[in-house]
């Protein structure tokens, strides 16, 4: 059997409608638009409505991704949901998503790798496909991080926003999807970005609430240094491992945390800034949702086109990092239908109808051409004889009339 690859066939995003601008934040904490935009590049972020949750946002993004891939929820084999803000501590948000989607034949689990989670999830899904174990996997990054932010802490509340993004992966015979990857973790820096309270180390208590330990806490400088160091190195490693020359990378989709982190990486990598997707000015840091949301927008903006080679790179709580070189070729060639035996009936029928229509058209054209050629072969001697006979009967057709010949006089 030839090597299998995991083609990304669908993608979708969801961002809540409510915008929280830097000017709004000026009313809430001791900050200002100039500081936030110059230090982070963020101008506004989206905040989920009270009735929205991580799963409800994941659901919207997933439906779009499934529609784009033309895959029914019941045909999914697995759902991987990358999040740090599940609806409940237990069970996994992925199980709730599986139920709401109607993905009755899918396994489901959450993946927690901070803002890096989506890339971890995509790489994991790719392995299930390459092993031939599963044929349709939904990978989602979704966060309602606004619930876990201390809105009196200017160190963190200016950075984050809510949203979700999803992709569908399916088997392919041609080299596409994740071509190379790197996953990393520096657990010794776990306390640079974490929730000190609420876990088994420091359970919920009156003290943990009073000391605001159930909210996200961050040592920004430590994360900043880690991010700039790992992003550059990891992108270099993963591109080298893919065997693709760096100049042939068409787009880099980095985790959207801070414009200065991205700019530093861009300079160190000596990459054209136009090849780098940045949308954090409008969404802030949406943690595990940031890369799939940026991916969707890069496609919408034409920064990513069929046949492109792209790099996804993330970093975050753990501290973790992950990068992947992805060949972007979402359109399935018709012959790949045979890779999936339970291909949706509608799509299979459509494909058969298209094939038959093309075959009938091609047969018609061939038959018409052959008939014309045969009739010409039969009739040519007759036309030649007829033309000769006409000239014998009317010799004036051979030479121009004497009076029409120009006179030399
Ligand atoms: O997904 C990963 C998630 N996290 C990250 O990626 C975070 C990475 N780190 C960062 O993005 C940056 O470190 C921050 C944006 C968080 C902070 O930027 P910075 O340039 O490292 O600022 P700083 O913490 O060194 O603070 C500089 C000054 C301080 O004042 P003094 O001590 O110099 O007088 C802060 O108190 O800015 C002050 N400051 C603020 N001022 C206005 C800190 N936060 C704010 C604020 N508004 N929101």
TL;DR of this structure?
With 409 residues, this protein is α/β, with parallel strands linked by helices.
Could you tell me the CATH topology label: Peroxisomal Thiolase, Chain A, domain 1
End-to-end distance: 89 Å
Which class of secondary structure composition applies to the elements?
A: alpha/beta
Helix content: 25-40%
Helices and strands, in order, run as EEHHEHEHEHEHEEEHEHEHHHEEH
- What integer is the average pLDDT? 92
CATH architecture: 3-Layer(aba) Sandwich
**How many DSSP helices?**
12
Q: Count the domains.
A: 1
Write the layout of secondary structure elements.
Elements lengths: L4 E10 L4 E3 H5 L6 H8 L3 E3 L7 H16 L8 E5 L10 H9 L5 E5 L5 H14 L6 E7 L10 H4 L5 E10 L4 E9 L7 E2 L11 H5 L6 E2 L1 H23 L8 E4 L4 H11 L10 H4 L6 H11 L7 E9 L3 E9 L16 H49 L16
Parallel strand pairs: 4-5, 4-6, 11-12
Antiparallel strand pairs: 1-7, 2-3, 6-7, 8-13, 9-10, 12-13
Feature tags:
single chain; 409 residues; alpha/beta; Peroxisomal Thiolase, Chain A, domain 1; 5-stranded mixed β-sheet; 4-stranded mixed β-sheet; 12 helices; 39% helix; elongated; binds oxa(dethia)-CoA
Structure description:
- This protein is an alpha/beta fold and 409 residues long.
- The chain has a single domain (5-390), classed as 3-Layer(aba) Sandwich (Peroxisomal Thiolase, Chain A, domain 1), CATH 3.40.47.10.
- The chain is 39% helix and 19% strand.
- The termini are far apart.
- Mean pLDDT is 92; it is low at 402-409.
- The structure holds oxa(dethia)-CoA.
- Residues 31, 35, 39-40, 115, 154-155, 158, 193, 218, 220-221, 223-224, 227, 257-258, 285, 316 line the site of oxa(dethia)-CoA.
């Amino acid at each position: 059997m030839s090597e299998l690859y995991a083609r990304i066939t669908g993608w979708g995003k969801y961002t809540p409608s409510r915008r929280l601008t830097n000017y709004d934040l000026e009313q809430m904490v001791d900050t200002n638009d100039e500081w936030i935009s110059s230090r982070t590049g963020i101008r506004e972020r989206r905040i989920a409505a009270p009735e929205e949750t991580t799963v409800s946002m994941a659901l919207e993004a997933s439906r779009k991704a499934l529609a784009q891939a033309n895959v029914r929820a019941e045909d999914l084999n697995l759902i991987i949901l990358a999040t740090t803000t599940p609806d409940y501590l237990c069970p996994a948000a992925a199980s709730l998503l599986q139920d709401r989607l109607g993905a009755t034949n899918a396994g489901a689990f959450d993946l927690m790798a901070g803002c890096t989670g989506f890339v971890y999830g995509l790489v994991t899904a790719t392995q299930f496909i390459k092993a031939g174990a599963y044929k349709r996997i939904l990978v989602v990054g979704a966060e309602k991080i606004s619930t876990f932010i201390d809105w009196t802490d200017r160190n963190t509340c200016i950075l984050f926003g809510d949203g979700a993004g999803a992709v569908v992966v399916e088997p392919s015979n041609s080299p596409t999807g994740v071509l190379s990857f790197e996953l990393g973790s520096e657990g010794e820096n776990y306390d640079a970005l974490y929730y000190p309270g609420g876990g088994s180390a420091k359970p919920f208590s009156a003290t943990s609430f009073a000391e605001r330990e159930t909210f996200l806490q961050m040592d920004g400088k430590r994360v900043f240094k880690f991010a700039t160091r790992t992003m550059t190195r990891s992108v270099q490693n993963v591109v080298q491992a893919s065997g693709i020359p760096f100049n042939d990378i068409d787009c880099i989709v980095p985790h959207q945390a801070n414009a200065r982190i991205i700019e530093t990486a861009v300079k160190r990598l000596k990459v054209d800034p136009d090849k780098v997707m940045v949308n954090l000015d409008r969404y802030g840091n949406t943690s595990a949702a940031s890369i799939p949301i940026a991916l969707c927008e890069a496609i919408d903006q034409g920064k990513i086109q069929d046949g492109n080679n792209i790099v996804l790179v993330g970093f975050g709580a753990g501290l973790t990092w992950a990068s992947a070189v992805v060949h972007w070729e979402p359109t399935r060639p018709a012959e790949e239908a045979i890779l999936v035996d339970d291909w949706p009936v509608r799509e299979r029928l459509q494909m058969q109808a298209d094939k038959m229509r093309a075959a009938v058209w091609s047969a018609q054209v061939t038959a018409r051409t052959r008939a014309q050629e045969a009739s010409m072969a039969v009739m040519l001697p007759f036309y030649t004889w007829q033309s000769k006979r006409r000239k014998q009967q009317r010799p004036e057709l051979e030479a121009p009339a004497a009076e029409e010949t120009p006179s030399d006089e």
